[in-house]
Amino acid sequence: MDPDGLNDALGLSDDKSQNLGAYIYQPPKHGKAGERPSKRRKVSVSGNEPAQIDRQRFVPLLNGDENAQSVKLRHDSYQQLWSEQEHKIQAILEDVDAGVLTEVSSFVRETSSQTCNGCIPTALVTVGSNVSSLSRLLSRLNEQLISTEEGSVVVLESGDAPNLKTTLKNIIRATITNTDGNDGYQRFLTDRSGPRLLGYDLDLLHDYVQRKGTKKLVLALRDSEAFDTGLLTDLLSLFKSWIDRIPFTILLGISTSVELFEGRLPRSCVALLQGKHFEVQEAGNCVDRIYESLQTASSTQLWLGRNITSTLFEITSDYFQSPEAFSRMVKYAYMSHFFANPLAVLFAKPVPIALLSQRKLCEVIRNLPSFRIFCEDLVEEGSTKQVRDMLENDGYLLKETIRCLDAGQQKMRSIFQAVLAVHVCLQYTQNTGKATVSDLSVRALSGELADSTLVDDMIAMMKALDSNKLDELIGRLQDILYNEQLGAIKANLKLLLETCPESGSLRSGYNINSTVTTTTVVQSRVQLSKGKAELSEQDVEYTKIIDQLLVFLQDYLAETLIRPQDMFLHEAFLFDLRNPLKETFAPRPRFAIERALATPFDYLLSSSDATATKISAKQPATAILYQLYLESGALVNVHDLWRAFSGVFENEEGDSCDDRVVMSLFYSALSELKTFGVIKNSRKKTDHLAKSAWMGL
Amino acid sequence: MKRKLSDSGETPAVSTPKRRRTALEQANGAPNGHAPTHPPPNGDASYELPPSRDQSTPKKANGISATPLKESGLKTPTHKSKARDLFATPTKPKSATAATPSRVQNADRSARKKSARVLFEQDEDAAWDGSEQLAEEILQGDEPDIGKAAPPLADSIEADPEEVEEKGAKQPKRRAGRPKGARNKRSPTPEGELPAHERYFFQNRAGPVKTSNANLNKVSLLTHEEYFEKMGLYEDPCRDEKEYLLSLHHRSFPQWAFEFDEGFNICIFGYGSKRKLVEQFADWTYHHSLSNTASPSIIIIVNGYTPGISIRSIFATIVTAVMGDDVPSKLGAQPTEVLELLQSALKSGGETEQPVTVLINSIDAPPLRRAANQALLARLAATPRIRLLVTADTPNFPVMWDISLRDQLNLVFHDCTTFLPFSAEADVVEEVHSLLGRKGRRVGGKEGVGFVLKSLPENARNLYRLLLTELITVMEDGNQSDDEAPADGCKADDTGIEFRQLYQKATEEFVASSEMMFRTLLKEFHDHQMITSRMDASGGEILGVPLSRDEMEGVLEDLVLG
């Protein structure tokens, strides 16, 4: 047999790269030795090349018929849109961190061992699930300290600290490279007078601190709980003895609680520390804020639909994700939209009509489900001419499309305005105040908010508001909605309040306090009777205003909170596909492998009509073995398994099959199952395997 | 009951008080709920039977009751031998049946005791084994025997074989094979569709597991050469489909590149080797960057499955690729040092430089699986300008990363099921043999041992011959003295010869003149893993050979002939 055929059959490439641990890729034909130096030179010259590469990333859609400019437009509008959103997210993150950052940095600046009675000043930062916030905090603190030349921050992870020597060495090296770079460290080690010190000698650090005039050396242990307790004790006692020469400040990142962390350390060690406790805001709040700002901002052009919103929050809460991870998912949603949706070209500003007038794009628009509904509505209204024009005239269609896109986006914005309005009202009416903007958005995006009990309850509760609160509420509503009617109501209220400044707050007729229960004793029986208390004239006026407001609100909500899916072109400005996001960020690899093995023809689109349910020799060997494995008990006899396996082949191929070939297949299948960890050797009986995974478990 | 009374009235031979005891016992049996269920057949049977046998088991009346009669009449020796197998000592085969009925009675009594216990400690599992049913049968079936003080010898023996036979068939001894009857069947697949967790508990319930005793001794296992040769002959029926699948994945390369551009790292998973796909992606990236910028991007491929691969070597390769000729002569021994060097080198290059693409095959392979390694790789992934694509083969790989690592890795996942064999990733033959617990064979097997022996001096060969002869003798002796013991592979591995004994033989045959010399010879064998040694319970050293008996004989043959 020729070796090529063998390699081919086994999927082995001819070059022996597969046996190398790590190697630099060289394509088989272009791998000439002289090529490498020249290409490196070219790289350093080119400055604006990344943009050029980027353009190539987008694949022409519409069966490859999309023209290059459209592709470029899609890419550019993605860049522009996302960079705006990213700025917003960054601003929020910075804002969230700002509080803790100022606290921590002032703590670092103000405390020293002198102020702490000779102890090591320590900042305990509890981060909870918001892991990434600490690294943001630390890098910004580092920047601050370096820019003011006060000192620096050294971050240490548990992985860097296998033993005391290595830990010290890592600390010293990280401190010096942080400011002087790697070369600086090497120079520092060699350019010293006197005997050469070992890498883990704290004298080196002392020397460095003196040379630099460092006032604060912050040592941050990012995952303090993961450090070995003994090592941490040794390290801290060592720092304590150097604290008069090296100005250490320890910063401990704690994910559980300070008490638990303290409980693990010996008391003698805890006695060395003196410090303060800081708390980083939980990730959940931050995520809500990001979502709110992304969706409700007036500049938003692309919205996330309800499926995607619920997926996002599901993943975030299931996996304790950081705000960054959340925003990455949103980013991926944006990326998917612009990468794969040809309508995304409509986002380009100004819309290049000439460029858009490709037949294909118009066809795409005409085939949209929302276009169909739109046309049907128009026909019902009687404007058949418009429909005919849209179907026949490309130019007209594009003009209409752009107009409708704008209108649709405007409607989306007002939906989110209404969501915000409802949110504000809820703050005044709901005692528990649990509904967040994201909850409300999900409802609004599925078109259920206007009719929900939540809103009904809210309206009912609003009737009972007194004038002070109402005044405040209307003020806040006006920030969100710019509406004349609301202004008029506000003016009325103001007028009313001015007329009776002395009476305090006014109450509406719906208020429970204005219903008076009268107790009368009639023939020695107590009779309770409810009746409307006498309302003052102002109160009656006030009740009218409340009625006005409620009518206005109800009308407004009913008008704006429409189902986004009913709008024409919602495919373009509403991204609502659950799948790319869920599969890319919360994969189910075990399910995928089990499915591939249990029903291989789900993946291998077989041309032959092999029945999917039956085991046959047409399937890959591992799939056959896995299905036999599924049928077996917790203990599997290898010999019987082998008989069953070869039986599958014998049944179909009769005498023509080579027993040893089947045996080889059996071997490879068995080794793969072992690699997947579904079988292991059993000591109970000879030649038996123990099953260790159950499908779907 | 009326029938029964008349029944007992008719039977003349045996004395009455004992009869009464029987009746009493049957009455006692009634509350247990066994006797009342079967009185009619019992009665019917007893009418037809001769009076002395009228008390035969009420249960066996259905069908079986007729046959044992005939059989007992024939007195077939086969049954007796079966009875002997289970209950009598094998040393005195002939006398057992004829002369010692007491032995049989003893055996019966112990069986009854056991059955009573089984019935008393009824549990669900017994129902699966059928042991409960069997116990019922034994208890009821033996009642007459207890009743009769001195049953005729022939009777007791004849009555026994069928019980014993049933016992042999139904007892949860492994050798007995599948029990008969639907209720007894312990099937691995229960009735109906069970959810996965129920299936787990079903298959893992306590009690003996029923699998056959067949083993792979008769099957000759594959060697590496044969494996590769035969795999070459195999024609994959799904070749086209697999290629189509690969081409589908190929289509998403621009998407992956876009994801790289936007700062994501990629993890591809799914069944099948993804090495080929990764190689294609490397090729695509290389040519793509070449056509766009006229300068190919830096691509490093890492094979995580390579045994003995270290994180440091991966980092060192990347550093070499990035820095070219400027690599410092000394990189540092710690992986963190190399990583920091790499990070500073990348930082100094600036943002506009070409990105560095690192493709890691099988990031979940054992050499890279350790948490410390994953943490370092995550740091690599978080480095700007580094683009990381990893492939993962095992089903549960995401558990390698906690949230902070996941955060650093910043992965997007793609299902890239390829169905390609893991030919480079796994040493198939080795894996399977270790799975079957035959690791020793790999060291050379028969050929390997023969090869080593050829290169050894005469003395050593003689010693090995001696060792093999002794071992084979021991094995044969063992099989003769104890024919119950199955000659399976496990037994063969266990047989050994005492160190002293072998030394003595060796001096007798003038192979070794001193213990010192003897040990030197043995050490040579040890070095080539041709012998095994272990301590037995008394502390003596037992020497063995990691070969099956056939192989031993083969080697011995070669030694004697050669």
Topology:
The complex is a heterodimer of chains A (697) and B (562).
Chain A: H1 3-10, E1 22-24, H2 35-45, H3 49-57, H4 68-110, E2 120-126, H5 131-147, E3 151-156, H6 164-190, H7 202-212, E4 216-221, H8 229-242, E5 248-254, H9 258-264, H10 267-270, E6 273-279, H11 283-296, E7 303-304, H12 306-319, H13 323-340, H14 353-356, H15 359-366, H16 369-381, H17 384-392, H18 394-429, H19 437-445, H20 453-462, H21 467-480, H22 484-499, E8 515-522, E9 525-532, H23 537-560, H24 570-573, E10 574-575, H25 579-585, H26 589-598, H27 621-631, E11 635-637, H28 638-653, H29 659-675, E12 679-681, E13 688-691
Parallel strand pairs in A: 2-5, 2-6, 3-4, 4-5, 7-10
Antiparallel strand pairs in A: 8-9, 11-13, 12-13
Chain B: H1 2-10, H2 16-29, H3 39-48, H4 66-74, H5 77-87, H6 93-99, H7 101-120, H8 124-129, H9 131-147, H10 153-170, H11 196-203, H12 224-233, H13 239-251, H14 253-261, E1 265-269, H15 275-293, E2 298-303, H16 311-323, H17 335-349, E3 356-361, H18 371-382, E4 386-391, H19 403-409, E5 411-415, H20 428-435, H21 439-442, H22 445-454, H23 458-481, H24 489-494, E6 497-498, H25 499-508, H26 515-527, E7 532-535, E8 541-544, H27 549-561
Parallel strand pairs in B: 1-4, 1-5, 2-3, 3-4
Antiparallel strand pairs in B: 6-8, 7-8
Helix pairs in contact in B: 2-9, 4-10, 5-10, 7-9, 7-10, 9-10, 16-17, 18-19, 22-27, 23-27
Region (Disordered) (chain B): 1-196
Biased composition (Low complexity) (chain B): 88-102
Keywords (chain B): DNA replication, Nucleus
